[in-house]
Amino acid sequence: MSRQSFASLTLSVRAPVAILLVAALSGCFGGVKKPQPAELQPVVALVSASQSWSTRIGTVRFPLEVAVSGNTVALASGDGTVALLEATTGRDVWRMALNTPIAAGAGSDGKVVAVVTKANDVVALQDGREIWRQKLGAQVFTAPLVAGARVFVLAADRSVNAFDGQTGRKLWSQQRPTEPLVLRQSGVLRAVGDTLVAGLSGRLAGLNPSNGSIQWEAPIASPRGINDVERLVDLVGRVSRVGDTVCARAFQASIGCVNAVRGSLLWTKPASGAQGIDGDERFLFGTESDGTVMAWRRNDGERVWSTDRLRYRGLTAPLMAGRSIAIGDSSGFVHLLSREDGSLFNRLPTDGSAIVASPVLAGNTLIAVTQNGGVYGFKPE
Q1: Which of 348, 330, 335 is nearest to 307 (CA)?
Q2: Looking at the chain, which terminus has fewer C-beta neighbours within 10 angstroms, N or C?
């Protein structure tokens, strides 16, 4: 079932929203020499892929997510431009300037597009016009989820909020205990059948989308250490769903899989990455903090293969695309690696600035967005 698969939802009681101190963490600290990225070796294209279109959206310096629904993709730029594009051509279905900086987005069901501004407003747009906005009580770094005629927002204070998709009326808010620090990057929020699955600290939680009640929680990682930084644990997007199983990464701690119907933890394994994961029925794929690309067996988390050909190249989360997994880097390349052994299939150039959102696949079009605002559509084999 898709991200837009919720049944009809009902109104519930509002809950207070607390304000939380938000910390930005990075992979390097002052005084430590940054490792040099691995040199790119010449590539013989074993999988054909050609650029079919390109367009521009504006500079992106926030945790952008590109939302795919059918043949449309929704995205936004840091200056407040929001666009819905045709995936096959890159042409605008519509484009609108909010004229206010964006902090998180975009979420879309193909009709409504939702973003969150740096002023903590969740804004919903449809057909190129703003249809509503609501003030939030905390910052947001995760794109809203638009599903079941509702807009769901995961805020940095561990609250989950639900709004009517057409009117913006607040339906409910679920507030969890807060921690002093959270990551300034995308977390986990998606629909799995009739359950809203959210990352709350180091746990995957299943919520009733009708009223926000928590139905189950499963720990992917637990806090450890003696200070707030060492005890920080957070789940990061993207996640991999196959049937009832959802697999996710806890920032620089572990990966794990959960049965989203029973809420039972299937397994966890130590892993040191900072970006999300993708996978299929057989394997999970991810990038570790040093740029090592890894594959694990989905059923038990045992390692299948790893490759260091992209070490220290500032990698995105991976995306499955046919026989390949697609990974963006900080130099503007999209690398296509074999799902079977991590060997290099092809390398796709963009504008030379960092790939800022995990690549997405809309139909047969692979789409990548750069920090300088380039949007590129490729047709891989």
Answers
A1: 335
A2: N
Instruction: Note the pLDDT tens digit of each residue in 206-227.
Output: 999 999 999 999 999 988 777 7
User: 92-148 pLDDT, tens per residue?
Assistant: 999 999 999 999 999 999 999 999 999 999 999 999 999 999 999 999 999 999 999
- The token pair at 39 is 């040199």
C-alpha 205: how far from chain center: 17
Q: How far apart are CA 207 and CA 163, in angstroms?
A: 15
Taking a C-beta distance cutoff of 8 angstroms, is the pair 140, 22 a contact?
A: no
| Pair type for strands 49-56 and 374-380 | antiparallel
Helix (H) or strand (E) holding 374: strand 374-380
- Quick one: average pLDDT of 68-73? 96
- Closest C-alpha among 25, 58, 56 to residue 236: 25
CA count, 13 A, side-chain hemisphere, 271: 35
Mean pLDDT of 4-10: 37
Q: Two tokens at 256?
A: 């794990």
* Mean of the per-residue pLDDT values of the chain: 90
Q: What is the pTM of this model?
A: 0.90
Query: Is the Cα dihedral 221, 20, 277, 4 positive or negative?
Result: positive
pLDDT at position 355 is: 98
**159 DSSP β-pair partners:** 175
* Position 13, amino acid: V
Omega before 103 within 30 of 0, i.e. cis: no
Q: Are 157 and 178 in contact (CB under 8 A)?
A: yes
Cα separation of 121 and 76, whole Å? 15
- In eight-state DSSP terms, residue 228 is H
Largest CA distance in the chain: 59
How far apart (Å, rounded) are the C-alpha atoms in residues 338 and 322? 10
CB 170 within 8 A of CB 162: yes
How many CB atoms are closer than 10 A to CB 32?
7
